[in-house]
Amino acid sequence: MIRPATAADLPRVAAIQAASPEAAQWPVADYLEYSFYIAELAGEAAGFAVWRAAGEGEWELLNLAVDPAHRRRGVARRLIAALPSGRVFIEVRASNTAAQALYTASGFTVIGRRRGYYHSPPEDGIVMRVEK
Length: 132
Ligand SMILES: CC(C)(COP(=O)(O)OP(=O)(O)OC[C@H]1O[C@@H](n2cnc3c(N)ncnc32)[C@H](O)[C@@H]1OP(=O)(O)O)[C@@H](O)C(=O)NCCC(=O)NCCS
Known about the structure:
This protein is α+β, with helices and mostly antiparallel strands. The protein is built from 3 helices and 7 strands.
């Protein structure tokens, strides 16, 4: 089940984020200002996604993570399916092959590479896009 997140979800979201070092590590309370959704499995938050409008009919996926105990069960695929129609962009670390495989499996294609986009550790960013 996919549902909007509330402030009550923040401790659980913080725990999932902390267990997902490949995800962006932002203050989780900031997510309440964006489109912020939870995927539940058996009544517990198993993953979350955050996105924002990036122009007319365009969206940027800001963060996405699934509890390591609940991976490879289609949780992230369902969160991506919950994104609105339009053009969706995502930036992902070049080394994050699991996330790139997920986005490719969800119809995204690579549209660019930003050299040295990430810090600590420094790394290129792969820009991907899908038309939903
Ligand atoms: C990337 C991540 C969100 C995937 O979540 P998930 O719920 O396990 O993904 P799903 O089960 O929905 O996977 C859907 C498809 O994506 C691909 N995929 C997902 N994880 C994969 C992996 N580790 N290796 C290869 N392919 C993978 C597969 O094609 C998978 O379909 P399949 O299981 O039928 O083969 C999760 O591994 C995670 O939280 N990683 C750390 C945070 C992160 O990297 N976030 C993205 C930041 S840009």
